Amino acid sequence: MKISIIIPVYNEEESVEKLYQEIKETTSRSSLDCEIIAVNDGSTDGSVNVLKKIAQNDREFKVIDFRRNCGQTAAISAGIDFAQGDVLIPLDADLQNDPADIPKLLEKINEGFDVVSGWRKNRKDNLSRRLPSRGANWLISFITKVKLHDYGCTLKAYKKEIIKDVHLYGEMHRFIPAYAVWHGAKVAEIVVNHRERKHGKAKYGLSRIFRVTLDLLTVKFLMNYLTRPMHFFGQAGMSLLSLGFLSGLAAIVLKILHIRDFVATPLPLFTVFLIIVGIQFILMGLLAEILIRIYYEPRGKSSYSIREKINF
User: Fold this and answer.
1) For the residues of 126-139, what is the DSSP string, one character each?
2) Who has greater pLDDT, 242 or 162?
């Protein structure tokens, strides 16, 4: 079984060589057949030079250099696209994930699980990062019905056949376990070591919470209505049309009983508004059905742009 270790790198010049050494020590000690794919996500420091230097001395260390910063999800997606291993293991480049946990992830994979997620139970981050993360993890588990303690932990193991056809956008790399369960995968979670950041600074702030929340809504929609969007938009449209009908009927009854004239009540306006919006929802559902047909005709377009590939 060959494994592919995927490392998204963004301004981690001081960490990547140390991380590479730790990975090599772990893989050598456990006699693992592996390749390492480092994806330089448009770093503005000397990260790419360090990566190229390592690649010159190790043919199993591969580098993908993005033309610009595309985000962690795009970097992981590129690693997945070019990985040749049977099991894919992404981990952060900032040394907070411990490569020594890789054999434990593989043990769970060998037990028959398709996805093994790391749980930073003793997380070494400040309270301003831990509290929003806990809230986000609870919300993701509640919405997706996949109960994990730590969706934000990059250190995970995936069987390639489970995620090879998953297209990732936005901040959706953290939702891969939910996608996997959606496709019938078995998911496990294990406690992994989490270390304090020694170099550089965190790349994400509170603004990330809002992006993740919006992506979560997208994931929920895709999980429930990807192949039947008309059910979502149609239900909303028919509900609004029904309310519009009831509003119009109430206005007519009030007029017949000489209780209120049309001009003395907002019900006629509500009727027109609800009917128009209801029809728009139904039309949106029809458009979504057309887009779904297009979705199932792959066009080979990626969410990243590569300047250079090394050792591929």
Assistant:
1) -HHHHHHHHHHHHH
2) 242
What tokens were used for 219? 């994931």
For residue 202, being part of any structural domain is answered with: yes
Count of domains observed in the chain:
2
Residues 189 and 247 placed together within one structural domain of the fold: no
Domain that residue 238 falls in: 229-295
Over residues 61-86, mean pLDDT: 91
Cβ neighbours of residue 97 closer than 8 Å, sequence gap 6 or more = 91, 118, 153, 154, 155, 192, 194, 195
139 and 206: one domain? yes
Tokens matching residue 229: 């969007």
Tell me: do 247 and 219 sit in the same domain: no
Q: Are residues 128 and 276 in the same domain?
A: no
- Closest by Cα among 296, 290, 171, 293 to 233: 290
Query: pLDDT confidence of 214, banded at 50, 70, 90?
Result: confident
Residue 170 clears pLDDT 80, i.e. is over it: no
Report, as an integer, the average pLDDT of 135-153. Answer: 85
Integer Cα distance of 7 and 155 in angstroms: 10
Read off the CATH number of the domain in which 176 is found: 3.90.550.10
Residue 1 Cα distances to 109, 158, 159, 195, angstroms: 11, 13, 11, 28
- pTM: predicted TM-score of the whole model, two decimal places: 0.76
| Residue-wise pLDDT tens digits, 277-309 | 999 999 988 888 787 767 655 555 555 667 778
Q: Is residue 307 part of a domain?
A: no
In this structure, are 153 and 261 located in the same domain?
no
**63 CB contacts (<8 Å, ≥6 apart)?**
37, 38, 39, 40, 48, 51, 52, 55, 308, 309, 310, 311
Closest to 169 (Cα-Cα) out of 132, 214, 138: 214
Q: Could you report the per-residue pLDDT of 14-42, keeping only the tens digit for each?
A: 999 999 999 999 999 999 999 999 999 99
Residue 308, in any domain of the structure: no
